[in-house]
Design a protein that fits this description.
The structure holds two protein chains of two kinds.
Chain A (H helix, E strand, L loop, with lengths): L1 H16 L1 H30 L3 H30 L1 H22 L7 H20 L3 H4 L2 H16 L6 H24 L12 H26 L14 H17 L8 H29 L14 H23 L2
Helix pairs in contact in A: 1-2, 2-3, 2-9, 3-4, 4-5, 4-8, 5-7, 5-8, 7-8, 8-12, 9-10, 9-11, 9-12, 10-11, 11-12
Chain B lengths: L6 H14 L2 E2 L12 E5 L6 H8 L2 H4 L2 E6 H4 L2 H10 L3 E3 L3 H4 L3 H19 L4 E4 L17 H8 L4 E8 L1 H4 L13 E4 L11 H13 L9
Parallel strand pairs in B: 1-7, 2-5, 2-6, 3-4, 3-5
Antiparallel strand pairs in B: 6-7
Helix pairs in contact in B: 1-2, 7-8
Classes of the chains: A mainly alpha, B alpha/beta.
């Protein structure tokens, strides 16, 4: 127990000036380069756009790039602050995502107290458990304890109309928005031999590959997309975008192997898993949105829709990536 | 009476916007300060008037007074907020219904309308909820006649219908803590009482204007 504590403390302090810091700076340098490139491309494209439709597409692209600058700045800042910064950031993202999700799915008055628990006790508790590095409880709190608690609290309200639906919907929201997403900052509490103090890189690696996969699928889809994968779910997802995005994001992830505890081949495998799951997350969230009859979960981020629209891929990729790393790379 | 807002007003408005995540759904939010308006909306939550009030631009908000129930807003901190921050017009709820005779009921109704007309004065606007009481959010109840009499008494004021969505889920009747979901607020086209329009016809038209702002099918 003391050993674990010492090593997490060491991990925290080494963030400030340890061997990991230089690579973290390099990674962010790369992100900065991509953003500059995207902004310059946006300006050039805007000058050359001819039709109104093209102009609208490019305006949306530029809005997305502007939002990316802000999101990267916030993420870099919280990563520099350390574990607490990342936990607070992801905790807030969980709450905002849960808010968008619950707003969309019908709940009834009898769910009010259960929702209060979900927002103000269960979600913060999940991040607190990561903060104190209590893996055994953090991994089962929502799938086991909340799973039992949610239907019980709803039943206590006495309203049985659509009971199973309501309980399932709230539990699903907690799983996606709080449980799944929290596995991203949970990477910071893994003790990976010969990688001590550099876990922040792994978090950045996950987010980078996942988000680049989204961006590259979007770009490949816009440039070459023809054959739709699931037109009734998401009209913008095409086979060309999917294959191009997955391939290039996997190559990118493999090229960044030095920032990870993986070999180049392992990094490629991990990136492939991240991109495929990211696609699955986007597809599932699109299906939920279609079911609810809306295009986006919200309008918080310029050009992107809501928080949940931006992190849907991460929600699916984070827990699997976490467990792969934990199973294969920790003792 | 109008003009400067209480220093807490901006803070409370920002807090109300944060908790309710209110998104405006109309093309042009009311921005003119010169015109007098009576905003009337559906009523499902204690947060209704605070959210509507906080969604208005600060300059408009400074001249807009919510109409609220005296029995609820009369004690302690609530009374302070109602009087100094929201500058609410506190009215006796159901005064007419509780009156002993029809005569008294009519007198009570007239007194309330007179009170509201006075609160409007020359420059103020009002927020009121013509259903008279909070509903569950599933339907909009028939409107009380106060809106009609007030509109007749102050014909220069524009009547602006508004629809508040999801506040019944954020803070339903009987609950104390809000669940911070995302709500929306839509303003409709300003309307007036037509010449020779009957009370019943106008109230039904006003209610239809509010219901018409509802988005798609009901969440329930």
């Amino acid at each position: 127990m003391t050993d674990a504590l010492e090593s997490t403390e060491r991990a925290y302090f080494e963030l400030e000036g340890g061997p990991g810091n230089a690579q973290l700076v390099w990674l962010f340098g790369g992100v900065l380069g991509i953003l500059v490139l995207a902004s310059v491309t946006g300006v050039v494209l805007r000058r050359t756009a001819k039709s109104d439709a093209a102009r609208a597409t490019i305006e949306n692209l530029n809005a997305r790039t502007r939002a990316w600058w802000k999101m990267c700045a916030i993420f870099a800042l919280t990563l520099m602050i350390g574990r607490v910064g990342s936990l607070v950031l992801f905790g807030l993202l969980s709450l905002l995502a849960l808010r968008e999700y619950i707003t969309l799915v019908p709940t009834r008055r009898g769910d009010h107290r259960t929702l209060l628990w979900s927002f103000f006790i269960i979600t913060p508790l999940q991040y607190y458990l990561i903060g104190i590095a209590w893996y055994g409880f953090f991994a089962i709190m929502i799938p086991v304890f909340a799973f039992v608690f949610v239907p019980t609290r709803i039943a206590m309200s006495g309203d049985t109309e659509h009971f199973l639906e309501r309980a399932a919907k709230i539990q699903f929201g907690l799983m996606i928005c709080a449980f799944c997403l929290s596995h991203a900052p949970a990477l910071l509490i893994l003790n990976i031999p010969r990688f001590e103090g550099r876990n922040a890189q792994l978090l950045l690696y996950l987010v980078l590959v996942d988000q680049m996969s989204d961006v590259l699928q979007y770009v490949w889809g816009k440039l070459t997309g023809r054959h739709k994968i699931a037109p009734s779910v998401s009209p913008s997802k095409t086979w060309e975008g999917f294959l191009g995005g997955v391939a290039t994001a996997t190559l990118l992830g493999a090229a960044l192997w030095r920032a990870t505890p993986f070999t180049p081949l392992q990094a490629a495998g991990m990136s492939l898993v991240i991109t495929l799951l990211g696609f699955a997350g986007g597809l599932v969230m699109s299906a939920i949105k279609r079911d609810a009859g809306v295009k986006d979960f919200g309008a918080v981020i310029e050009g992107h829709g809501g928080i949940l629209d931006r992190i849907d891929s991460l929600c699916f990729a984070a827990p699997i990536f976490f467990h792969l790393v934990r199973y294969f790379f920790t003792p | 009476m109008s003009g400067d807002l209480h220093p807490l007003a901006g803070v409370i408005a920002a807090l109300a916007r944060a908790i309710s995540g209110v998104q405006l759904r109309c093309a042009d939010a009311p921005s003119e300060t010169a015109r007098q308006r009576i905003y009337f909306a559906n009523h499902t939550s204690h947060l209704d008037f605070i959210v509507l009030w906080s969604a208005l631009p600060a300059a408009v908000r400074a001249r807009t007074r919510p109409v609220a129930a005296k029995d609820y807003w009369e004690s302690g901190v609530k009374a302070y907020l109602a009087r100094n921050v929201f500058r609410s017009v506190l009215v006796q709820r159901g005064a007419a219904a509780q009156a002993a005779s029809e005569e008294e009921a009519r007198a009570a109704g007239r007194a309330t309308v007179e009170q509201l007309a006075e609160a409007l004065g020359e420059t103020n606007s009002l927020i009121l909820f013509p259903e008279g009481t909070r509903g569950t959010g599933e339907t909009v109840a028939p409107f009380r006649s106060g809106l009609f009499h007030l509109a007749k008494r102050k014909p220069e004021a524009e009547l602006v219908p508004a629809y508040l969505e999801n506040l019944n889920r954020i803070l339903p009747k009987g609950e104390v803590l809000p669940v911070p979901l995302i709500s929306s607020l839509a303003f409709g086209e300003p309307m007036r009482v037509n010449e020779n329009e009957s009370k019943e016809a106008f109230l039904e038209r006003a209610r239809a204007a509010v219901c018409g702002l509802r988005r798609g099918e009901d969440m329930q």
